[in-house]
Amino acid sequence: MSYDKEKALELAQSTFLSCSVISKNQLAVLMVIDKGEDVWETTPPVRLFIIPCDDPKKEWVRIIWHKDRWVFPTVEKASHDDLLIVDGQGGVYYSDESTGKGDGEDPIQNELNMNCTYCNLSGLKNIHGEVYIVGSFRRVFRRKGENKWSIVSSDEMIADAESRYDAAREKRRFFDTGFKCIDGFDALNEIYAAGENSDVWRFSDNQWLPIDIGFLDENIISICCADDGFVYMGTRSVDNPGKVIKGRNNEWIELDLPFNSDIISIASFKGKTYIATSSQLYIYDGGKVEAVKYNLPTNEVPLNAGFLSVGYGWMLSVGNSSISIFDGKEWKILYGASLMDEEASYALASESIKKSANLLESLEDAVSKKNND
After folding, report:
1. Which residues are within 8 A (CB) of 169 and not within 5 positions of it... i.e. 6 or more apart?
2. In degrees rounded to 5, what are phi and psi of residue 274?
3. pLDDT tens, 234-288?
């Protein structure tokens, strides 16, 4: 893949969804092609790039799925150097790195005889070799092999979530009892799953128990069981700044943040915790949260953070204007304006400005409608 105007526009017109370090030599980045479709009417085309770590100017493997194939998919390393994609409705794509074979699998809910209403899957995560994904009504799924998944959340926690949802609906209120993210200190023990309304559960000693984090009504969208022995949870809010909540078991605190943005992703890399918003990457080493100081020329600073993935000695950072990797000492930009010529850089900047203007117009319309109501 070359960094010409055409390719710059191709990436600039896409919205990144997810990323993963899938082997010591390959990275995976998943995106939707943003052409203005209403995602509630039709799901836009999805594109997967497999990127070589050593030289971004080598050919990137591209896989394209057309409209109505995926609903908010995420990508993750499966086992060995294999790749797995799962979307919000349980659609699955698996690629075996050793054979190069890639194909769709049966939807998760088909195997488990579930209605898709119970899916709304998100938070695909490889936890020390075991792959998990979470969804509505506190359901936690674990992959057992090709076309094989099991529900590992307890019947009691699911029934309680369904009961709370039904009670709220009778009062014509919305109450989400689904998990959004999952991580763990061990593949099969001390696993934390979290979601809206500060709903946090821990799996330990073969049982799930609720955790009181001491913060009410938080929408938790990211979680990391870090190298320092603590759990970090990131929140998103319409009305308030995002939070990072740190703790373990029943002791939790809120970190003092130098920004007012949603926490998109949190990762632990070489003893330090990294916190990503949609526009900036921050580092926390037990003291205070600070913006990452890239050891790059000023004209090569990545323009966005957003999604993080760690593996094989790399940390991958993906945002809507850059793809970069970090080995603990040096950053390398794989995609961004600094790697393009002047014409391609201008095309990228123009497209980014256009997308920002459209977003601002949408927000203004939403505020105007709310005020009129």
Report:
1. 175
2. -110, 135
3. 999 878 889 999 999 889 999 999 988 999 999 999 999 999 998 889 999 888 9
Residues in contact with 40: Cβ distance below 8 Å, sequence separation at least 6, in sequence order: none
Per-residue CA distances from 299 to 302, 324, 337 (Å): 9, 14, 9
Contacts of 356 (CB under 8 A, 6+ apart): none
Q: Please enumerate in sequence order all residues whose Cβ is within 8 A of that of 361, keeping only pairs 6 or more positions apart, or say none.
A: none
Bridge partners of 151?
A: 141
Angstrom distance (rounded) from CA 332 to CA 170: 53
What residues does 243 pair with on adjacent strands?
Answer: none
Torsion of CA 349, 352, 358, 364, to 10 degrees: -100
* Helix/strand/coil for 111: helix
Residue 49 vs residues 28, 75, 255: alpha-carbon distances, Å: 6, 11, 35
Phi-psi region of 312 (alpha: psi -120 to 50; beta: other; left: phi over 0): left
Strand partners, 284: 273, 289
Beta carbons within 10 angstroms of residue 220's beta carbon = 26
| Tally of CA atoms within 13 A in the half-sphere of 318 that contains its CB | 24
Under the banding of pLDDT at 50, 70 and 90, the label for residue 340 is: very low
pTM: 0.85
**In this structure, are residues 74 and 120 in contact, taking their beta carbons and an 8 Å threshold?**
no
d(CA 33, CA 278): 18
- The per-residue pLDDT for 331 is 87
CA dihedral in degrees (185, 188, 189, 191; nearest 10)? 60
Cβ-based neighbours of 51, under 8 Å, separated by 6 or more: 26, 27, 28, 29, 60, 323, 334, 335
Question: Residue with structure tokens 């349980």?
Answer: 90
